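Appendix B. Chain record.
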Amino acid sequence: MRKRLVACGVLLLAAFVVFGQSAAKKYVIANAPKCVGIAWWDRMQVGNQRFMKATGNQVYQVGPAGQADTAVQVQTIEDIIASGANAITVIPTDPKTIEPLLAKARAQKIVVISHEAEGMKNVDYDIEAFVNADYGAHVMDNLAAQMGGRGGYAVMMGALTMTSHQQWTAGAIARQKEKYPNMYLVCDPVEPQISGSLEGSYLTAKELIAKYPDVKGIIGWDMVNPPGIARAVEEANKAGKIAVTGTCLVSVVGDYLKHGTIQTISFWDPAAAGEAMCSLAVKVLNGEKITNGINLNVKGFEKCTLKGNTLYGSAWVDVTKDNMADYNF
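Structure tokens predicted for this chain:
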């Protein structure tokens, strides 16, 4: 299992720790996303690197290779705790499973910042790119516009355990029931046959289309969901008949946007989220007071709302073929 760990810069970790201890107020931050080696988390690494260059703090990224794996993420965090890092920024696949580990980290004076995990207890703060229910409602509005407010739809999550995906789903369904009475779910929300996998998303979408001929729209919350769904839709000769939307990056679904199989995607910049987590971690490490309206000096996170231990930014964007060139990362 440990062979599947990919540690960007792990060989330099010892040097990072020495640097963090010898330079005043410079820290080592370990970023532990759901996985590494796919476009979304590669983009987050860009934000980590920007933060390093701007501040002199050190950030490295480590996690399961290629697809989400809770067991590997658990071992990753164990290794981070043992390494002597000053802070962990984590995007958990299964928040409940890693709560005890994060409690262990904090007991050792490691600052913990989570993302896409609202409601976690054993973190200093969770930071969200937006209010998750609002994002779900917004994506439902986009789907409803494409479906003409009528017909059956399905929802695909990255994994049924993912907190943010649960909240987006709840927000979307609530908006549908409130505003679009002529729409309906054809089945309970599903997850890919292979978690975090484009191929798994494609296979699950094929099954949905075959099993529910009345489906007229599909939301995919994980970055690998929309391209997998779009591929299945095109193979079924349903492009233009089944609307596809959700969370993704232009670099992954650009061709589907050009073809019109996908009309709109929504997302926030993972690089900005990475920078925001690092910025918040350093503020906590420096003993700064975290207050409502705090500016993390990152686009979309300039005036964050604080509720409990959760900070909310205002960072989502919609992209169509008309503006996709502006977001091609």
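Further analysis of this model is presented in Appendix C.
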